[in-house]
Amino acid sequence: MQSKQKFILTGVTFGAAGMMASPALAQTMDVTITIPRLTVAEYHKPYVALWIEQAGKPARTINVWYDTGKKNNAGIKWLRDMRQWWRTVGRTTPTPPNGVTGATRAPGAAKISFTSGKGGMPVLTAGAYTLVVEAAREGGGREVVKVPFTVSAAGTAKGSGKGSFELGAVSLTVRR
Questions:
Q1: Is the pTM of this model over 0.85?
Q2: Domain residue spans in the chain?
């Protein structure tokens, strides 16, 4: 004879279980990138790539913005215009980069949050890193902004940088 047990999760039980499994201790990196409004004859939103570099380790792409709305995903052929990203990690990345892509953004401040272990975001252990942001625009220029930051033993960090034409202010905060 088999006995059937029925488990009922009450709000209290579920809440306790949820707190134990919650990502409260997960590391989050908040990045703000300002895309300046340019006064040009023909404006196109820039393609943007974000990746993290650490000395002695392979670079990790965490986000790529490109024209995802083109027929047959034709926007991927222009990813190589982000030359530094392409040479560093782009050419060895499956195209389109899985789990890290998004549409291009309009001028203004774009705020993005990354959680360690999701998408391309690695867990950042204590040490020195560089967030690299590259923008390339059709009929425009390209620009790279490097934001050095040091993650503390507590898993936190801050950093900022500034572009001069294709990119404006870039800032980041790493927190637990």
A1: no
A2: 25-175
